[in-house]
Amino acid sequence: MVPGQGLRAAKAERVPLGHLARIAAGPSGSLLETLHDGPSGIPVIAPPDITDHLTVDTRRLRRVPQSQAERLERFALRAGDLVLVRQGTLGRLALIETDQNNWFYSSSCLRIRPDQDVVLPAYLAACLAHPPNQRELIGQALHGTVPSLNSSMLKQFRVTVVPLHRQRDVVAALADVDEQISVQQQMLERLTALRPSVFDQLTKEE
After folding, report:
1. Is this model's pTM higher than 0.70 or not?
2. How far is the C-alpha of 72 from the C-alpha of 101, rounded, in Å?
3. 97 with 153, same domain?
4. Could you tell me the mean pLDDT of each successive run of 10 residues in the chain, 206 residues long?
């Protein structure tokens, strides 16, 4: 079935991920043998770079030389893709932003490219990050020396899809919640920093 085909119904459906997106494993290790820690080249996203907030931590990215871009072209990312960890911290994922266009991803990750006529990338990211879905996904991992997920398994993994207008509502509501979380975290950090000075002031000798 072609991704998105026949999925424009007006109600929620449990749909295999392979009907919503194209899924591709990362390049083999031999294709990334020129990875380095220097500042030049094209970033390659690996599991340690993916945060708990569906973003990429860019501080420790490794890179491949620009000269290797052509042979890795089929693994290039674009805005709206999801990068999912398939080995290591299973299930963690990031939503790729515009400034990460044409970056690559490691062999320990899978690329999920949503059919945006059917599912919004931000909605799909939230859906896959939803704790019950995370537990189900990780529970299906292949057991071995290193538990792992693969593209065939992910294509069969079912997610709940609602009409696009409801997806937009979900994304907007979650963005509001995330903003409030950020505000509260900043307030907590300020109060935590203030606490020692309050103690000092109140115990200072007259």
Report:
1. yes
2. 14
3. yes
4. 48 93 91 86 96 94 91 95 93 96 96 97 96 93 83 95 95 90 91 90 80
